[in-house]
Amino acid sequence: MRKNQISGVIFVFLSAVIFGFTPVLAAISYQGGNNGINMAFLRAFLPIPVLLLLWFFTARKSIPSRRQVGTGVILGGLLFGCTLLLYSSYAYISPGIATTLHFMYPLYVVLFNAIFRRQKPGMIRIVGMVLGLIGAALLVDLGGSTDPVGLLLAFLSGIFYAAYILVLQKESAAPMPLYQLMTIVSAAGAVLCAVVGLAMGKLTVALTAPAWGYAVCVAMLTAIVGCVLFQAGVRRVGDANAAIFSLLEPLTSIVFGVLLLHDLFSLQKGLGCGLILLGLLCTSCADLVKKKEAVKKA
């Protein structure tokens, strides 16, 4: 493996750890007066000054067109619609289970392409979807120890993120500079979260000092450090390989949830999460095989 590829693997690995660890920090901040909607607003709003500076220093001469701004606004609505749902789910279920359910979004993308774009998923992807659905069913505890509201919120967050990915794929045909896009997405997300928060009376600054610290860490680590590391990793190892290493994200959430939040993790829940991750691995491997076959034909 080349040095460039090794660094790419390290970057994707670190981004997965960050994205897996920050949900636990968000859940801890709820104990100090924070809530899911307020956390989503802070996640969108706090990084904007840093993103504006990065935009200025990397692409100051680049002015987005109206169409690009419109696309960025749509992406912001989808991404932070997802964030509102996912962060809200942490109040009902453990971050590990929520992140695992959210991470089923590649299966939703495959399903969307099969239904609306007539793209045949292939046997490996079908197996992956079946495993994911069985795993999700195992997470539904009929005995009542797992809140169905939290499961629904996490499930819906994955659908929003799948839609975000599909729109982002279209945007990549005429891409904006990275920090320019991230700034527009965050600004649109901040407006959305502010409107929802004000309507529901969930916006607050009455957080304890530790809760503010956790919230700032979540916002900056996810919006700046995690995104930059992931983008750098994708450029070195490719998106299909990056998707496989990104499966560490829900595993990280599960481990830190057990260690820091003392989440109870039964055999049934462990089996459910394991089947979802196996299904995602099947989907990622199918993408990798498809790309290698395309390269051979070229």
Topology, pairings included?
Layout: H1 3-29, H2 36-45, H3 48-59, H4 66-89, H5 95-102, H6 105-116, H7 122-139, H8 148-171, H9 178-200, H10 209-237, H11 239-245, H12 248-260, H13 267-297
Helix pairs in contact: 1-10, 1-12, 2-4, 2-9, 2-10, 3-9, 4-8, 4-9, 5-8, 5-12, 6-8, 7-13, 10-11, 11-13
Residue share in helices?
A: over 70%
Rg from Cα: 19 Å
Could you say which structural class the secondary elements and strand pairing correspond to?
A: mainly alpha
Which consecutive residue ranges, at least 5 long each, have pLDDT under 50? none
How many domain units? 1
Order of helices and strands: HHHHHHHHHHHHH
Tally of helical runs: 13
Approximate strand percentage = under 5%
The major pleated sheet works out as: none
Which overall shape is indicated by the principal axes computed on the Cα atoms? globular
How many strands? 0
Mean pLDDT, all residues:
84
Distance between the termini: 23 Å
